Amino acid sequence: MQMERRKTENAPSFLRWSANSRIGFTHFYVVIFLILTIAYLAEAILPKPDNVVLTHYHLTPASYHWLIDPLATILVMIWLVSLYGSLRVKAYARLIQGSNDGNGMNLISDGLLVQTISLPIVSNISYILNHIAKNHHNLQPSATIIVNYISLGLMALAFAFIFAGGQKLFKLIPGRVKQLPRIVWQGVFILASCLYTYFVIIQPIHHPLDRRAYFLPDWLLVLTIAAPYIFFWYAGVNGAYNMFLYRRNIKGSIYRSALSFMAAGITVVVLASVITRIITSLSSRITSLKITPILLIIYGLLVVTAAGYILIAIGAKKLRKIEEV
Amino acid sequence: MGSLSLLDQILEISQDYLGPAAERFIDRQISTHLKKRPEKITRQDIYKLIDWIKLSFALLTNDTDMVEQYAKRLKLVADGKWSEATGKKWAQK
Fold first, then answer.
1. Which residues contact residue A318 at a Cβ distance below 8 angstroms, ignoring those fewer than 6 apart?
2. Measured between CB atoms, which of A96, A250, A322 is closest to B60?
3. Is B64 in the A-facing interface, judged by CB distances under 8 Å?
4. pLDDT truncated to tens, each residue of chain B (93 aa)?
């Protein structure tokens, strides 16, 4: 923050406004994030549990809250860790903005910020719309469709930024980079995408809880949900891979060492996001499982995501130190 | 390599350790400790700068050998021995 002020105190007024507006934007972002997070916590903990859910999982209201309240609290803590990691990267990116690597880092940090705030946004919108749909059953399809598209849109924006940032960093690598590993994982990705599309379309409905995940005809589902998800997952994974290559091939032993944490963290966050979405897409299969495996899957993904953001924060701190000594 | 300016020689060596951050690091060291523009640096300035760079660099790594190596290479640049300051023997992992 001091370096940013030093840079701009003698600058023309429009640059000072720009710097202050960036600081103001960060404050605004954090405030909105905290409001959404508190709202989500209230939505998760305060209301009475659904009787259908209690019956399906053989729970009492008390046992339901014993399970859900800690999960909601841990989820909020994960979100706060994500916020911390994203803001750390943004602060570092601001420090080096205008430089070759700064442009790429700035885009990646924007992607992480979008990814971070998408979590409480989608959770809140989903709660509100599903709450409305509970009292107006004819609105359930609309509610589901809106939530799905908002979730897709935010993920697409986040991964588009990460892809663009990864591309900028990749272009800084001196010399040629072997393409065979990229070809191999792209082939695996294509295969996985075919499987994903198949499982998205075949969603068996056996129980009231197996509510349709999409309420869309198959052709529209493939065209506007499955295909965009696959495209932007590819963009996100490609962005993370480009960052990995950048870290591996760029000069500077100390710089690379610091960057390795951030590169690893971004890879973990991107992959965890993709896997979470895949599991959500297979929701009807998961609801046929007992509650324990479901919670284990959810907890596992949350821990992995948090670990990713912690790595990102550590990497950003180490990189920032290079700029401050 | 003989056509490289003094600043470029310093940056070339610094990039082996600090990569894209090297230019910002060196610019900062020169502006802060020598109070002059980086492109105006002279060989005498490098001798004065080495100790400051060593101090700052030591905050970034526990590897004292690396710190000494970096300082040694900068001294070679200051002595006008550019070809000795570069080369595979100084290659970083």
1. A257, A258, A261
2. A322
3. no
4. 457 889 999 999 999 999 999 999 999 999 999 999 998 999 999 998 999 999 999 999 999 999 999 999 999 999 988 888 887 777 665
Dihedral sign of CA atoms A15, A21, A24, A25 in order: negative
Higher-pLDDT residue of A103, A210: A103
CB of A325 within 8 Å of a chain B CB? The answer is yes
Cβ neighbors of A31 (< 8 A, separation 6 or more) are none
How does DSSP classify residue A225? I
| Contact state of B19 with A252 under an 8 Å Cβ cutoff | yes
Q: Where are the beta strands (DSSP E) in A108-236?
A: none
Residue A18 pLDDT > 50, yes or no?
no
DSSP for A76-94 reads: HHHHHHHHHHHHHHHHHHH
A168 SS3 class:
helix
Instruction: Label residue A5 by pLDDT band (50, 70, 90).
Output: very low
Q: In this complex, do A325 and B59 lie within 8 Å of one another by their Cβ atoms? A: yes
- Residue A88 Ramachandran class (φ > 0 left, ψ -120 to 50 alpha, else beta): alpha
User: Which chain A positions have a beta carbon within 8 Å of B25's beta carbon?
Assistant: 322-323, 325
Beta strands in chain A (DSSP E): none
Going by C-alpha positions, the residue among A128, A116, A115 that lies closest to residue A44 is: A128
> How far, in Å, CA of A167 to CA of A170, rounded?
5
Distances (CA, A) of B26 to A81, A165, A253, B53, B56: 34, 25, 16, 8, 10
With H, G, I as helix, E, B as strand and everything else as coil, classify residue A179.
Answer: coil
Residue B38: what residue type? Answer: P
Predicted TM-score of the model (pTM): 0.86
Q: What interface predicted TM-score (ipTM) does this complex get?
A: 0.91
Helix (H, G, I), strand (E, B) or coil at A26: helix
CA distance linking residue A89 with residue A100, whole number of Å: 16
CA neighbor of B68 nearest in space, from B58, B77, B60: B58
Most distant CA pair in chain B, distance: 34
* End-to-end Cα distance, chain A: 15
- Report the alpha-carbon angle A301-A305-A311, nearest 5: 145
- The more confidently predicted of residues A1 and A256 is A256
Q: Is A56 helix (H, G, I), strand (E, B) or coil?
A: helix
Q: What is the DSSP letter of A99?
A: S
Residue A229: which H helix or E strand, with range? helix A227-249
Enumerate the domain spans of chain B: 6-88
B91 touches A: beta carbon within 8 Å: no
